[in-house]
Amino acid sequence: MSTEGEPSSLIKIIHLFLLSTAWGMQIWVTFIAGFVLFRGVNRHTFGLVQSKLFPFYFYTLLSCTFLNLAIFATYHPRELLSARETIEIVLFFICLILAAVNASWLSQVTTKTMFKMQEIEREHGLGEEVGLSAEREAYKLLKEKDAKYRSLRQKFFKFHGLSSVCNLACVISTGVNLACIALHLNSL
């Protein structure tokens, strides 16, 4: 490990705690919570829960990543970085940027668009079904009949897709950084 000074045990614990907190949160929100909610609550409740959960999630991820980057950069001067350490710092930086974009822009646009879609859906008696339902045809029909709804759906899926890609890149970045730390532990 090319460092300028050795971090204290407390700094090492904080760094690992922040990284594992980010990783655990990412795995839970990305791969578990959404699927459980999708299968357990109606569409509009699902959207409402995610509209409350995602800002907290993205800002927590942003904070954890910023602090991890700061700790890592403090103990790894640029001129002493190995190839592995360069990859780690770049991954922290990528995750920081993508979490910031998600927190400050993508999730907000997605949420506002979703709420506008839900207003139209309520007018047509939609949104109370749970999971994949027989109402799919009704949504398809609404999309065909209502140009405003169709436009909102396109915008929603565009921004939701971008947000998902950014989130997955963050999951991969955090996972690789966690693996790098795990592979370089002296002992357990």
Describe the structure.
- Helices cover 81% and strands 0% of the residues.
- The two termini are 18 Å apart.
- The protein has one domain.
- The chain has five helices and no strands.
- The protein has 188 residues and is mainly alpha-helical.
Summarize the helices and strands and which ones pair or pack:
Layout: H1 9-40, H2 43-75, H3 83-123, H4 136-145, H5 147-183
Average pLDDT figure? 92
User: Which consecutive residue ranges, at least 5 long each, have pLDDT under 50?
Assistant: none
Q: Report the structural category.
A: mainly alpha
**SSE sequence, one letter per element:** HHHHH
Q: Evaluate the radius of gyration.
A: 21 Å
Give the number of DSSP strands. Answer: 0
User: What is the CA–CA distance across the termini?
Assistant: 18 Å
Describe this structure in a few short sentences.
The protein is an all-alpha fold and 188 residues long.
Label this structure with key terms.
5 helices, mainly alpha, 188 residues, elongated, 0% strand, 81% helix
